């Protein structure tokens, strides 16, 4: 008993020794010198007390560590010079932009035929062509067919467990949209146009050129007569458009019906001001954004190790700086009237998802974080 009391006194006399951080080594030294001074050495009890204090400190440090870790996983993430926004910031930005831009809602839901339902994972994915849709379809298809080498093609809508929202009874549509997680993948609209052009409208892709342009010959001819001042009768079986002409036709004839799902605005595809998407992914940062999807889907190892899946993911890890530079270079010859028209056509795609375009600085993606910095 006497030992205990002296011990206690011994520690209380040296509050400096109890300062956090110096505890582990210094306190032991203090303990030894003080207790040697009082002439008591009640080893067992004191050790217990020291252990308790050390344990409390260890738990404290662990909690601080866990907090820091969770903060990290929620906080910004970098790819090159791009900071990847957390999901809640992207969602909030869309919501605010919808009211800021005074977006009127379409009377008939345009998204019905674009939303793919994965019943197994309870996921409603709004599919936009040229915005990573093949990658997403491949992932979902591989999971549902349990085939690691599955690559999405025309068979995708027929996979058991997949349906298109438009093909479901209206009562089920509503249930699904309320209960399932909703996902959209977006991309800089100007980059998307370039991708459409490079993958489908080059003279070597004759079949695609016919498929995409044959139904729009009237608008193409109008563009040539109105804007270029020359009468042509465009023949998609023999000709194609240059990138400058393609952008020109879109900017002057989009509202006159020059539309195809490949360049129809993401806004019109998915109506993000009506549907509140839970997951907002970007093609530019897909490899990083994928962690959002994978924490929901929990893909098994056999999928994450699979080659086609990795192959498609890798492209989004290409240096974003380089990609943006390429974009500016490809738009260099587009005249200012066409650029202005393009900005009007894709105003909502730019504004709702935080994308910017500057004739000198090129494409970017900027969502203010409130402290003078931006994320994408
Ligand atoms: C939003 O649009 C409506 C209808 O088009 C209009 O009456 C209203 O003034 C607009 N509000 C703003 C803030 O622009
Ligand atoms: C897996 O998918 C690939 C590509 O879609 C296909 O060729 C192959 O036949 C599939 N394998 C099985 C076992 O279904």
From TrEMBL:
InterPro entries: Carb_sulfotrans_8-10, Sulfotransferase
Localization terms from the record: Golgi apparatus membrane
Chief site of localization: Golgi
Keywords assigned by UniProt, alphabetized: Carbohydrate metabolism, Glycoprotein, Golgi apparatus, Membrane, Signal-anchor, Transferase, Transmembrane, Transmembrane helix
GO molecular function annotations of the record: sulfotransferase activity
Protein's membrane topology: Single-pass type II membrane protein
Record keyword Protein biosynthesis present: no
Residues annotated as transmembrane: 49-69
One record GO biological process: carbohydrate biosynthetic process
Family statement: Belongs to the sulfotransferase 2 family.
Record's protein name: Carbohydrate sulfotransferase
Organism, as annotated: Paralvinella palmiformis
Organism classification: Eukaryota, Metazoa, Spiralia, Lophotrochozoa, Annelida
């Amino acid at each position: 008993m006497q030992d205990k009391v002296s011990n206690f006194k011994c520690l209380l006399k040296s509050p400096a020794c109890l300062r956090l951080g110096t505890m582990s080594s210094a306190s032991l030294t203090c303990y030894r010198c003080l207790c040697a001074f009082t002439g008591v050495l009640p080893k067992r009890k004191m050790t217990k007390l020291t252990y308790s204090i050390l344990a409390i400190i260890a738990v404290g440090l662990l909690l601080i560590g866990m907090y820091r870790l969770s903060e990290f996983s929620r906080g910004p993430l970098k790819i090159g010079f791009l900071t990847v926004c957390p999901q809640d910031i992207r969602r909030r930005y869309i919501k605010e932009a919808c009211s800021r831009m005074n977006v009127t809602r379409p009377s008939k839901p345009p998204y019905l035929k674009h939303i793919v339902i994965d019943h197994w994972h309870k996921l409603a994915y709004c599919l936009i062509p040229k915005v990573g849709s093949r990658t997403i379809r491949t992932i979902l298809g591989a999971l549902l067919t349990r085939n690691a080498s599955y690559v999405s093609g025309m068979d995708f809508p027929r996979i058991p467990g997949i349906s298109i929202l438009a093909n479901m009874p209206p009562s089920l549509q509503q249930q699904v949209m309320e209960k399932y997680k909703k996902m959209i993948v977006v991309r800089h609209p100007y980059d998307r146009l370039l991708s459409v052009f490079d993958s489908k409208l080059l003279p070597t892709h004759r079949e695609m050129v016919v498929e995409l342009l044959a139904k729009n010959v009237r608008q193409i001819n109008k563009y040539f007569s109105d804007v270029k001042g020359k009468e042509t009768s465009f023949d998609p079986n023999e000709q194609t458009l240059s990138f400058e002409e393609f952008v020109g036709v879109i900017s002057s004839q989009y509202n006159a019906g020059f539309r195809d799902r490949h360049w129809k605005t993401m806004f019109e595809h998915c109506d993000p001001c009506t549907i509140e998407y839970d997951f907002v992914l970007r093609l530019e940062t897909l490899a990083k954004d994928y962690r959002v999807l994978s924490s929901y889907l929990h893909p098994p190892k056999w999928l994450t190790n699979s080659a086609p899946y990795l192959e498609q993911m890798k492209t989004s890890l290409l240096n974003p700086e380089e990609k943006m530079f390429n974009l500016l270079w490809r738009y260099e010859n587009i005249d200012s009237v066409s650029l202005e028209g393009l900005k009007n056509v894709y105003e909502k795609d730019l504004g709702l998802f935080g994308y910017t375009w500057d004739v000198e600085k090129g494409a970017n993606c900027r969502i203010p974080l409130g402290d003078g910095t931006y994320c994408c």
